[in-house]
Amino acid sequence: MSQKQSALGPKPHESAHKHVAGAADYLDDINEPAGTLHAYIGLSTVAAGTIESMDFTDVLTHPDVLGVLTTDDIPGENDVSPTALHDDPIFADKDVQFLGQPIVAVIATHRDAARRAAKKAKITYQEKPALIDIRAAEKAGGEFVTPSLTLKNGDVKAAMEKAPMRLKGEMEIGGQDHFYLEGQIAMAIPGEDDTVKVISSTQHPSEVQHMVAHALGTHQHAVNVEVRRMGGGFGGKETQGALFACVAAIAAKKYKRAVKIRPDRDDDMVMTGKRHDFLATYEVGFDESGKIHALDADFAARCGFSADLSGPVTDRALFHADNCYFFENVELRSRPLKTNTVSNTAFRGFGGPQGMIGGERVIEEIAYKLGKDPLEIRRANFYGPNTGNTTPYHQIVDDNIIAQVVDELEESADYQARRQKVLEFNKSHKNLKRGIALTPVKFGISFTATWYNQAGALVHIYKDGSILLNHGGTEMGQGLYSKVAQVLADELQVDPARVKVSATRTDKVPNTSATAASSGTDLNGMAAADAARQLKARLVRFAADKFQIEEADVKFGYEHLDCAGKQVPFEELIAAAYMERVHLSAAGFYKTPEIHWNRETGRGTPFYYYAYGAAVSEVVIDTLTGEYFVDRVDLLHDVGNSINEGIDLGQVEGGFIQGMGWLTTEELWFSDKGELKTHAPSTYKIPLASDRPRTFNTKLVTWSKNEKRTTKRSKAVGEPPFMLAISVLEALSMAVASVADYKICPRLDAPATPERILMAVERLKGQR
Amino acid sequence: MNFDSKITFWLNDEKIELDKLKSDQTLLDFLRLEKTLRGTKEGCAEGDCGACTVLVGRLKNGKFRYQGVNACISFVASLHGTHIVTIEHLKGDQGLHPIQQAMVDYHGSQCGFCTPGFVMSLYAMWMEKADPTTTEIEEALQGNLCRCTGYQPIVKAARNIAKFGSLEQDFLVKERQQNIDRLQALENVTPIAISQGDDQIFVPKTKAQLAEIYAAHPDATLVAGATDVGLWVTKFMRSITPSIYLTALNDFDAVEEKDGQLIIDGGVTYTNLLPLIDEKLPQLSTYWRRIGGAQVRNMGTIGGNIANGSPIGDTPPPLIALGATLTLQKGDETRQLPLETFFIDYGKQDRAPGEFVGQIEVPLPKPEAHFATYKISKRRDEDISSVAAAFYLEIDGDKIGALRIAYGGMAGVPKRATHVEAALKGQPLTRDTFENALNAFDQDFTPLTDMRARAAYRQQVAKNLLLRFFDEHFGEAESLDTLRQAALVEVN
User: Fold this and answer.
1) Dihedral in degrees, nearest 10, Cα atoms A513, A515, A516, A517
2) What's the domain count of chain B?
3) Minimal CA separation from A12 to chain B, in Å
4) Quick check: is B113 in a domain?
5) Is the same domain home to B329 and B381?
6) Same domain for B290 and B360?
7) Dihedrals φ, ψ of A56, to 5°?
């Protein structure tokens, strides 16, 4: 080989050629076994109450209906709570806790029949008063679905009293629907004895396996869960797929036929959890330089009727309220509130974005109070390299590069000159106003549930030299399969075309963690690399024996083994190794070192490392209507040493736009009765191509390497860029602030719909 | 009347003939469940996400054109005489079609679920415009949602299709004559009727046949573009039988300019009216391009939007402001009425059973008149208006002359702001006049709060749009949209 070839680099997604041809099979595209039945779930029509009666006569008279499933048909436990709190029933038993809660599943020979029949169930309720939003829940006493967390450092009370300046405020932060393009879906195929195979669109096959086993009253070894790919997940398929899988499995065992379940989009949006809405209330003490002396804040979240992942989600909100800033004296409290709404769940960032935007609001407040550029306040409070680097959870930030990232972006985006131009524009325009903002991101990488930070991989090399890779991570579009295959090919020094990634299955790699927390490549890449190293060691030993040389003289080269000068092509090597009875399969394993977290004391090192980034956004608003557009965005993001720049850029750009949707047009609107009225793309508006910034520059930090021994020294990229979109909200806020000469913080709530912008404009005009 | 008894169309390279068919059979279910063509995806089943986009080739008045439509809300009964092209049919010299290869090389897919729909929308665009601008790409993709990529790599791919192949070498271009011949062979004026159990389908070929069939079956559901009727089926599971499909009519989609008026047949789609709008009513061009996405504009008709009677339909406010007249037809009889009087109350229109929207006559603005249209929505494109407004104003010396102001989203029907008009008419053309007229809004409108907007916002924005109209037409104000268009940097 004259030139070193690399398996790494910006190769297309492993399924791209199938995506574009409609040849990538999603669950609903898989051929159904003969006689497959279809289930459809009937939903509650009240937000709180007790079921008085259920009459399925009209359902069962439908010619294509075989029967219905209710709680009585569940052989095991009626629960899909991911945290063993037993508060998440598959079907409402007696108490209905939100509008849209599953009560019954109709089983029919085809989906349309099941769906039509499900509407014919006659269910009556004794209605109870329902708590729909955060303020109502607080007013009613503020019941929690899971214990609150407090993070504390220093003496917040004393420092607040001594601070030269103080202010209080609050911010409403809206939730977000995942809007994965492929909705929830599962198919269960019954097997012998108690066995069942479940194909599920899930980010967490092991948990689906666990839940199905529980619901069936059997052991996990009887349940095999498989997922080749999802049509998007974003956290919405971390826990939310389990219910559908359980219903399909219960029906499959009952009717001894394959059963598929796929809710309509509207029902999917009504019955599955979303990003938590938050109400952040804060008091901050600071000085004339903008330095924060004390911060005291509550983060109240609409959790819905059950805990689901609300505990770790609201924890993570606190973990990220500091963002890049040192709070010497701080107290942060979470308030995971119970409401009569769908149980909110994981969503890209996992509470982190809500915490971070609360922290950034505090920065903004100080800036307007002092009449300074918020960027100045940011810099005045950045974590220091050596001192002032303790987080509210007492982890030391020891890999801090935010100052360099911000400096580089400030220059490359021409921030200062453009800010001046924005100020000038606003002086000369009556109706149109511009705003610009530079916001940073620091995001902690690792599951805060420490035991989740483990992964397994299974690698087979076949006699012809082709390689089959299986690992516990799931592919939802983020390119995990591509990256792990590249890592494996790189470790084995083979052409990535040799590697096929097979569907994630619980019978291949057991006890896997959710593909979540941006951890997929970090964990599964390392596990695959571990398997590769085992195989390489065996091959080296074999070659040393075969050629009677020292192991040290055997070296892996691209597509070959160098045996003391003799080049043995990979295929030849494998064929020979097989004949010599070398074990050509290996199970790799990885667990993240160094991390620990004690929730009781609020202290620990929950994160292995941090990923950093920064964004400059510039917007224009129309103060007559509240309409706006995003004019220009410059992103600079740290992925360490990138494994695949194409995929990483896609995560950064895609995450940013998704974050922008959360903060601008995506509004969850519940009626007083608790009915979600924005339950379809006709009413729930995610960004379109035409919402992209009119200029959109994205760069990866070229000089960053992960200090920690991660896969190829890369950094996790799934979630962190999402929060770069905070710059859009703050730019909108600045444009609004212009109508009162930047003297008042607009306190723009999210999402900043045109309505919220106009109302804020009107409010500020009234205050000036 | 003699009827044929089957629907015939081409699906990729297969001739499909159906003599058994239900009114509510959607194209998407037909593709996925009957034909096992599962490359076309269901994302929302309401025509908003575009994952189910397929091409429909139609031969109309000798012109053959492919357009993207949403298969989820297209009914098979509306496809007679068409050529349906799905993602499975695409091919290129080296396997993948140039658009597909561009999407691969530019990382245009992540989860891939929306991707077939994007490819089909881009294909429809590319056949009309081989070298599209970024703006044209965004317009072509208004009806396609992607949740992963942030669109940037898709737009890049679309800007660089030429690197992967030319339109001249495209397989559908090469096969064009063959496909025209196939459709021509299906052309005749015999209407189609299919009965299956209680279900009845009619596919008239001429307006006269439509009038006769509808008069005989006044309880029938008229299905034109199905952009709303589709949802009656996919979301509300309503029965639409007996059903009459208007898409095969050969004399119901003409537009012409005559004596300073646009004469628009009820079956004209948004897309097919667009060239004339750009030419004769440029004040409506941006507004029009913000109605639905490309697929919905390809399907939806002006007549359907009006007959539907929705208070948030986007065509009535501008048409009322222009003083449009509606022609309703029942059997051989027609009657005319001003469009604004057609809308009586929420859910109630001045339309008798068996009567349909035959034509719309739209007077063009006088040369010296001012005309403006505004659409307010949470998202700029492919969103239902929270408020729509249209202003038509003639100047009489230094005073305000004849004027019509119409709003959507402000009442149970699209409605003129008569009190506001009265407050302006005959007054000096000054901002003070406009500001003084704002109080009259409270006499004209008491809007509702819903998930699109709260009442207070609707009222405020309705008022402010009047000021915007003044500022943009008689003041010096720059419009947000002008600035937005100027700001766009071509993606490369």
Assistant:
1) 70
2) 3
3) 6
4) yes
5) yes
6) yes
7) -105, 15
Would you call A288 exposed, middle or buried from its count of C-beta atoms within 10 A (0-12, 13-18, 19+)?
exposed
* C-alpha distances out from residue A377 to A170, A181, A286, A287, A612, Å: 19, 40, 10, 10, 18
Q: Is B422 part of a structural domain of the chain? A: yes
**A481-513 per-position pLDDT tens digit:** 999 999 999 999 999 999 999 999 999 999 999
Q: Per-residue confidence at A3, pLDDT binned at 50, 70, 90?
A: very low
Mean pLDDT rounded to a whole number for chain A = 97
Q: How buried is residue B235: exposed, middle or buried, by Cβ count under 10 Å (0-12/13-18/19+)?
A: middle
Residue of A nearest to B149 (CA): A654
Q: Is the pLDDT of residue A472 over 80?
A: yes
Q: What is the pLDDT of residues B114-166, one digit of tens each?
A: 999 999 999 999 999 999 999 999 999 999 999 999 999 999 999 999 999 99
Same domain, B410 and B389: yes
Is the residue at B58 inside a domain? yes
pLDDT at B61: 81
Domain that holds residue B410: 255-473
| Furthest-apart CA atoms within chain A: distance in Å | 88
Indicate if B321 and B413 belong to the same structural domain: yes
Interface-testing mutation among A19, A38, A111, with chain B (most B C-beta atoms within 10 A):
A19
Tell me: do B298 and B343 sit in the same domain: yes
Q: Which of B245, B269, B295 is the last residue of a domain?
A: B245
Taking the Cβ of residue B461 and every Cβ of chain A, the question of whether any pair is shorter than 8 Å is answered with yes
* Chain A residue with Cα closest to B102: A20
Q: Which domains does chain A have, with CATH numbers?
A: 36-129+184-262 (3.90.1170.50), 278-448+599-767 (3.30.365.10), 454-591 (3.30.365.10)
Question: B200-247, pLDDT tens digit by residue?
Answer: 999 999 999 999 999 999 999 999 999 999 999 999 999 999 999 999
Which burial class, exposed, middle or buried, applies to A709 when counting CB atoms under 10 A from its CB (0-12, 13-18, 19+)? exposed
Structural domain ending residue among the three candidates B193, B218, B245: B245
Predicted model pTM: 0.98
How are beta strands B387-396 and B399-408 bridged, if at all? antiparallel
Count of CB atoms within 10 A of residue B13's CB? 12
Specify whether B353 is located in the same domain as B458.
Answer: yes
pLDDT tens across A142-191, in order?
A: 999 999 999 999 999 999 999 999 999 999 999 999 999 999 999 999 99
Mean pLDDT value of segment A228-244 = 98
Closest CA to A183 of A249, A82, A302, A271: A271
pLDDT single digits (tens) B360-393:
999 999 999 999 999 999 999 999 999 999 999 9
Testing the interface with B: which of A690, A691, A732, A756 to mutate, by most B Cβ within 10 A?
A690
pLDDT tens digit sequence for A43-62: 999 999 999 999 999 999 99
Same domain, B281 and B356: yes
Which one-letter DSSP state was computed for residue A176? B
Q: Is the confidence at residue B298, as pLDDT, over 50?
A: yes
Query: Which CATH number fits the domain that encloses residue B385?
Result: 3.30.390.50
Does residue A5 have a pLDDT over 90?
A: no
User: In CATH, what number is assigned to the domain containing residue B129?
Assistant: 1.10.150.120
User: Cα distance from A333 to chain B (closest Cα, Å)?
Assistant: 32
The pLDDT value given to residue B94: 83
- Does residue B93 form part of some domain? no
> CB-based contact (8 Å) between B153 and chain A?
yes
Going by C-alpha positions, the residue among A355, A291, A361, A297 that lies closest to residue A321 is A355
Q: Which residue of A has its CA nearest to B471?
A: A431
What is the value of ipTM here, to two decimals? 0.98
- Assigned token pair, A191: 């097997």
Beta bridge partners of A505: A226
Supply the CATH number for residue B78's domain: 3.10.20.30
Q: Which of B51, B112, B154 sits opposite A24 (nearest CB)?
A: B112
Same domain as B67, residue B204: yes
